[in-house]
Each structure stands twice: as C-alpha cells, then as structure tokens.
Amino acid sequence: MYPLFLASFVYLTSGRSGRGRIRPAILALTAIGAFATLPDPAHAAGAALCSNPVSQLSAPRDEAAAGQRDLLLTDAALRYARDMANGRVEIESLEGDVDFPRATVDPVPGLRLALAQNRLSAWLATLPSSAPEYRRPVGAYTHYRDLAAKGGWPQLPALKVSLKPGHSSPIVPLLARRLVAEGDLGLNDNAAENLDGEVLEALKHFQARHDMDTHLLDLLVVLRGKLDTAEPYHVISGYRSPKTNGVLARASHGVAKRSLHMEGRAIDIRVPGRDLKLVHGAALALRRGRVGYYPKTDFVHVDVGKVRHWRQGREVQAACLRRPAS
Predict the structure, then answer these.
(1) Whole-model pTM?
(2) C-beta neighbour count of 43 within 10 angstroms
(3) Are 64 and 58 within 8 A, CB to CB?
(4) Is residue 295 part of a domain?
(5) Residue pLDDT, tens place only, 9-35
(6) Do 72 and 97 reside in the same domain of the chain?
(7) Is 72 within 8 Å of 26 (Cβ atoms)?
(8) Which tens digits make up the pLDDT trace of 145-204?
(9) Are residues 242 and 236 in contact, defined by beta-carbon separation less than 8 angstroms?
C-alpha cells in the first residue's frame, strides 16, 4: 500500500512531541491548494480528513484514530514531495514511446527536519520548481481554473470559412468576450462586431502569447467546421521550447529533432465526440500540411509543413500528397 516509504514514516502529530502540530500540519497541507497531492482517491479517509474543519481533527477519539490521522497526513506530505520531484502524471501513461528517468527521492529527512523546526509550511513551499518552464504553466492553470469557477467563457461556434480582418460576423462579440476573459482585451471593447481595431490587436496578442502560427490556427478553425462540432479541441501538445523538444527527442524515436512544434506550426489534438479516425480523415482531406495518426495514444498530429502523412509505428510516407489545384 505504501511501497516507497513503508519503512520510514514520519508521524506528524502522535505522541507528546506532536501535541500542537495537528492544526498547522493540516493548514499547511490544505494551503497547497490545487497542487496538493492528497492521498490517492482510494484513501477516502485521507481526503475527508483534510477537508474537514480543523476543529474536528484536533482531538482524535482514541489512539487508533490518532494513528490513522498521522499516517494519512504523513502520506499526503510525502506523496506531495515525491510528485513535486518527478511529476504527478507518469509520462508513459500518455506516450508509450517516452521513458523519462526518475530521480531517486527520499523526502523523509526533509520532513523530519521541518517538523523538528516547526517549519512544515516553509518546507512545503520549497518543493515546487522555481524554473520558469514550471512557473508559467502553474500561473496559466491558476488563471484558467479561476475562469472556470466564474463560469468560463462562451463556446465559439464552428466556422465553415476563416474569419478575416475587417469582416463582420456574429462570432466577433463572442470572441471579444473571450479575449476579455483572457486579459487580452479591455472591458470596454467587448461590444465590437467587426474583426478590426482593438479586437484584432487583442487577437494578435493572444496568438503571440501562445506562440502559435496563425496559419495553423486557421487550419484548426477549418478542421473544426469540417467536423461540424462546437466542442473545444483537447490539446495534447502545442508549442514546445527547443529544450523540451530536445528532451522528448532523446527519450523517444518518435519525436523529430527539428519538430515544427518548436515553431508553433504543429499541434497534437483530439476532439470530444468525434472518432479519432474521423478527425484523421478530415485532416487528410484538407491537404494543408502534415498529418500524423496516433491511435495507440489517441491523438492526431496536424501542422502546416509540407503535405505528407504517417501513422504511429510506421515510417513517414515517402510520397507527398499532391495539393489540389487552386
């Protein structure tokens, strides 16, 4: 049940030396917020323990209840430390060709010292990475989580053709409201009906922030219309920094060293409510770039490079598809 730390649990609150620790321990763990690694869903008691009012947890009914409480709190702290070092999601569960080495982590000494110095909150705060590659996604996740809590943004309807600068469309007010929610457009500019002025500049700013090529975004709009869906794309991989792409390329032969992901010209997607074969076929029919089919890992790769296609586990097709006459 506890394979990593079976022989080295640090009891947070039991015994005479633990008196007075229960409140700060629970407060420290719950203050981690969205990034807390509470005991796994199988540990229902642990989740309930950390969600109950602290006042109900200060005086366990008996020694067995105190021991259970200590074990679950310790488990939460150690799991959080482990996940901050190696990630909460195992990359192999998403991409079978990738095998990242995992650091050997023993957070027990750090937890012991933090408890001895009554600095549990400070110790927990040191665990997340300070690298910008980590901090930026954390900030984005926090931003989108707050948006979702406020009701999110309106769904944008599927378009059969690309919306061009200067054009008027019923989608523009919805787009403006979304750009306001994203922080790219001022609150007073969301009543626009034409894709120009402040709305167009805000859209360009949004695209620049996400490092995505506008031709690729156009492709996604047309593909969404061809699939006749208003569902948002599930993005598996979009822009990648050269550093990230290099790590992936070293870990998997399926990742190109000169991937168009590094230029914001490629994206890996799936579409809720649409079979992956249908998405693959629709992307091929567009003939607007390269298309990769990954049924084992459940996504389709599209980009705006030279027209060609491939399938997971097979070599890239040597013969390019011919573009239709324009």
Answers:
(1) 0.50
(2) 17
(3) no
(4) yes
(5) 455 555 544 555 666 666 666 666 545
(6) yes
(7) no
(8) 777 787 776 666 666 666 778 888 888 888 888 888 778 888 765 566 788 888 888 888
(9) no
Final residue belonging to a domain, choices 209, 231, 261: 209
Tokens standing for 101? 């080495």
One domain for residues 110 and 165: no
The residue out of 76, 110, 128 marking a domain boundary is 128
How many structural domains comprise the chain? 3
CATH number (domain holding residue 227): 3.30.1380.10
Q: Which domain holds residue 302?
A: 212-326
Structure tokens at 325: 């006459």
